[in-house]
Amino acid sequence: MYLGLKTGWNFGASLFGSILGFAILKPLSKALPEKLGGGYFGPKENVVCQSAATSAGSLGLLFASGFPAAYQLGLLSARPADDIGRLITFTLCCAYFGIFFTMPLRRLYVCKLKLKFPSGIAAAFTIRSLHVGKNAAAMARKKTWVLIYTFCVAIVWRVISEYAPGILWDWHWSWWFYSAGWKWVACIESWGWIFELTPAFIGVGLIIPMNSAASFAGGAFLAWAIMGPALVATGKAFGSIISPDAPEYINYSNMLLDDPVNAPSPKYWFIWPGCMVLLCASLAEIGANWKSLLASFSMMLTPVLEKIRPRKQREIDPDAEIYDPAPLNEQVPLWLWGGGVLTSTVLTMIILKVQFSVNPGVTLLAIVFAFIFSLIGAECAGRVSIIPVTTLGNFSQLIFGGISKGSGLSPMENQLNNGLTGMLAEAASYQCADMLNDLKTTHLIGASPRAQLYAQLAGALVSIFLSCGMYVVFTTAYPCINSLTATTCSFPAPDVGAWRAVSVAVSAGSLPIPLSSGITAIVFGVFVLIQTYVKYKFTPEKYHVWFPNWNAIGVAFILGPINTYPLACLFGCIVATVWRWKSPAGFAMYGYALAAGGIAGEGLGGIVNAVLQIANVSGAYKGTAVGCPLNAYCG
Asked: Any transmembrane segments, and where (predicted)?
């Protein structure tokens, strides 16, 4: 949730869960008697632990996209604390049907198509190195201590830095030159080119490919160093002076706009090209891999068609059979996953009708689309380890916004309906991709898919209550998350801006899009489609890495003008590249542990800061503004 609200990117908990789970459960398995949980703890048990962690982490996405957008649009109560019952019940709706209908996809994506699922492979190698080998115990201790040290340092650093953010967290280097008399460099500060000492996003850079990191930073440079200043210079977008004491220091992030069509801020202007890039990038990838998608549907429907209309005399084609290495008693039977899908679907239809007055037929249709979008998420996760879940949720918003508009619902009812159905699709596709990553790990380790399902159900149960509680904590400490603001917020929440923009667009009588922004969005969309076609049609696969990652570019468009995270990711990726080159064994030993510790540590440090903020003892109350622009606290 913390990372999603910061950048719109979400990261599974598998690596952190596998290493920290080992650190906690391995000693307990030896210290406790068997009746209290002691006994053998090996790679297969470690996979189950990791699955629970992954499942527990997947529901936080709802609170970094759809729910804040609903509050910004005034569709729910004034405060999330007043809606805690509805938040919990809706999260319950999203918690399980994605998990259940993922289970039959295991045979297709993992056993038959053998997709890579890079995150799942990384987790499998990590777990195996903790348990297997001549020096496994010594290596496990080293990895565990590196993760724990990094985790603790990240938490402490995140908390302490709040009390001197201009020195310990954000380096507003251009402002320092401005204060020394170089007035022209204020534009660098205004466009968000700040370096941030963030363990989480430097850690992210350690584990993502250079293509993604370079695309993220390149998209930020294109939008907020070239196009943004050009828009302001030509009068297509407008900023506002932050203080008369520094007239060169301009706010380009204002979302409180009297005339968003004719006088947009650069941030609002870029929402539409950013959304178009994300939508077209996902559609193009789907179109380019349509044969695999068609095979997915065909293979899933074959067993059902055989039961409806069996071909008793058919010859069995060995190549068409899917070999499943898991013993029969460890596989997930039809009654279990099918019954789970049916039960969770009925429960979702009831809750959305009672709590939000959504037509049960619309809910059922939304779940069908959620399943379809889950296949897309699975393909993306399996091939490139990037899941465009918010884009898939936006697809669902567009579809159900049109349905609601055709049904004669008011704009606010339409916005709530398309937001809720979009979150169903978003949660299901993210869960599906995350679960399949774990199932890849299970397959490589030889663990039990059924045990993994039980762990995922337990992890989701914890997350239902924990995610809602953490959201209330964050929004109580930082109310700007749920409100449109003229100033910057500690949590820029780029997914929320995209979500809100789509909700308004599909429910409005006329599209609130600046003409120049709409034309640019169409041009970008067409370019993305053409480039993806060239990539798959005319370019050998080994050269695909040289094509930009348009999902990362779209996020950079929507995120800015806050460019700390693209810079931090690129820095981390450069460090990882040099590290792999100089010492491949050293990176394999410590790289993932450092990244996982930094990501999780900063996230939990953010929760500590939120609690301190509520208690009025945070850096905003007790800290210093030294190093911050205008000598105003910048934490």
From this structure: 6-25, 87-105, 144-161, 201-226, 269-290, 334-352, 358-378, 453-474, 513-534, 555-581, 587-612
Domain annotation covers residue 287: yes
Residue holding tokens 């995350």? 434
**Other CB atoms within 10 Å distance of the CB of residue 355:** 16
> Phi, psi at residue 171, to the nearest 5°?
-100, 100
Give the residue ranges of DSSP H helices in 385-493: 389-406, 411-445, 449-477
- Within 10 angstroms of residue 531's Cβ, the number of other Cβ atoms is 17
Region of residue 2 (left: phi > 0; alpha: psi -120 to 50; beta: else): alpha
Tokens of 526: 């067409």
Q: In angstroms, what CA-CA distances link 451 with 46, 331, 428, 447, 456?
A: 11, 9, 20, 8, 9
pLDDT tens across 487-523, in order? 667 777 777 877 887 788 778 777 778 999 999 999 9
Total domains in the chain come to: 1
SS3 for 195?
strand
How far, in Å, CA of 285 to CA of 529, rounded?
A: 9
302's tokens: 């074959």
Nearest-5° Cα angle at 201, 200 to 205:
120
**Residue 384 forms part of a structural domain:** yes
Whole-prediction pTM:
0.78
Residue 483 DSSP SS3: coil
Strands (E), 205-329: 240-241, 250-251
Q: What is the pLDDT of residue 214?
A: 92
What is the number of other CB atoms lying within 10 angstroms of the CB of residue 116? 14
- Evaluate whether residue 609 is within a structural domain: yes
| Residue 408 half-sphere exposure toward CB, CA atoms < 13 A | 0
375 within 8 A of 385, measured Cβ to Cβ: no
Residue 534 in tokens: 């060239």
The span from the CA of 551 to the CA of 188, in Å, is 25
Look at the alpha carbons of 92, 94, 96, 97 in this order and tell me if their dihedral is positive or negative.
Answer: positive
Q: What is the rounded CA–CA span in Å between residue 181 and residue 137?
A: 58
- Structure tokens given for 437: 């990553």
579 — pLDDT class (breaks 50, 70, 90)? very high
Q: How far is CA 340 from CA 345, 347, 613, in A?
A: 8, 10, 41
Taking only the tens place, the pLDDT of each residue in 320-357 is: 455 677 787 888 887 888 889 899 999 999 999 998 88
- CA neighbor of 594 nearest in space, from 152, 157, 165, 60: 152
Q: What is the 3-state secondary structure (H, E, C) of 68-111?
A: HHHHHCCCCCCCHHHHHHHHHHHHHHHHHHHHHHHCCHHHHHHH
Give me the domain span that covers residue 388: 2-308+326-631
Distances (CA, A) of 513 to 120, 233, 422: 40, 20, 21
Q: 195 is written with which tokens?
A: 């370096």
How is residue 52 written in tokens? 């629970």
CA atoms within 13 A on the CB side of 452: 32
- State the pLDDT at residue 458: 92
